[in-house]
Design goal:
Elements lengths: L1 E4 L2 E4 L10 E5 L4 E4 L5 H13 L5 E5 L5 H4 L2 H4 L2 E5 H10 L6 H9 L5 H11 L12 E3 L2 E5 L4 E6 L9 E5 L4 E5 L15 H12 L5 E4 L5 E2 H20 L4 H12 L5 H6 L1
Parallel strand pairs: 4-5, 5-6, 6-7, 11-12
Antiparallel strand pairs: 1-2, 2-3, 3-4, 8-9, 9-10, 10-11, 12-13
Helix pairs in contact: 7-8, 8-9
Bound molecules: zinc ion.
Zinc ion (ZN) binds next to loops.
Amino acid sequence: MNQLTDRIHYLPPDPETDRPILSAICGTYQTLIVDAGNSDKHAKLFLDELNRCQVKNHHAVVLTHWHWDHSFGTNEMNKLTIAHENTKMHLEKMMEYDWSDEALNNRVQKGLENPFCSEMIKKEFGTDRNITITLPNITFKDKLEIDLGGIRCVVKHVGGDHSDDSSLIFVEEEKALFLGDCLYPSIYTQQPQYRIDNVRHLLENIEMFDAKIYVLSHEPPLSKDDFMGYINLLNLICDLTEKHQRNHLNLVNELTSQLNRKLSQLEEEVV
Ligand SMILES: [Zn+2]
């Protein structure tokens, strides 16, 4: 467990089985947990760490979106669960799924499951595929404010290409913004995708929050400078995609000459 600020603890992401960051925001009276983890084991590890750090009064979990790695630990967390109404809708659909290798492979073939997620589920759960989908108790449409005592959290639905239910959590007093996976591209399309209008809409929403620390679920927390670099890159690529009418080569050439160097792996992926 690490400390993000005086009043926020987090368990770092673990790429081994695609475990996202799990966090605890500690107010005077209540502690709010952000995301439930990718399995009962992951949730248990987090709860044990909270115990070890003597973090108490955790009665609620808020989900950033429905994807397995953020929601499969909900049952083990065993707390009041808060999520966007679309998160509940997607989880309801998933309740009917069978998680055997055969069923997973079948869904991958039909394009209903992402191959990477399928591999990671097999790796996280092994042969003991004890997966219980638990639905949120409280849902919201646009936003929700939670007062933890001396700390206020705004939970806001932003959507985006990665998942239509993506919601962010802004912790006003700590100037921390939890973004979940909302800035990542789609994963249930043949290729990862961004749409210009979706990205711009998302960035407008994000820029409304005056944060100093930005938490994306699958990487170490970012400072404002690093995060703005990421945002500027997305904005620039949107502009160039529009300018070059999706001509890949022209886009890459102009981006390379504007940056005056070879593109990084991240830049190539975003393009
Ligand atoms: Zn996701």
